[in-house]
Amino acid sequence: MSEKKPSVWEGFKAFLMRGNVVDLAVAVVIGAAFTNIVNSVVKGIINPLVGAIGTKNLDHYSSCLSSSCKGQQGITILWGSVLGATLSFVITAAVVYFLMVLPMAKYLARVEARQKAKEGTREVIEVTELEVLKEIRDALVAQRGSGHREP
Does the global pTM surpass 0.90? Predict the structure, then answer.
């Protein structure tokens, strides 16, 4: 009574063929491509706009906490890098929300409304059919009752 264990290759193949693994792989690839787009927008549009006031590269914005920040000496806070990363995040979140999440939510709401409308129509039809059947039953009962009393 020994059961045949699936081979490692069969297990690996079953793992790869699961839907969520493929979906995750697609999401990672799309995310990487989307990161390139966001970085291009930040470098090509946001940084030049900021450059109108100062430098084009946000990484050059910094503050010195010690008396001297020449070379490797002193304590330098690179707040420009943090600002650039924050802008990248906000732009990414805005694009994902306005171009993906919001349209999908509206689409799903429309689909759900259509589904509810169809279900409501079915209920009305079922109630109407039930009422018609009750009327037919009542009419048949009335005919039987009047038919038995006459003779």
Answer: no
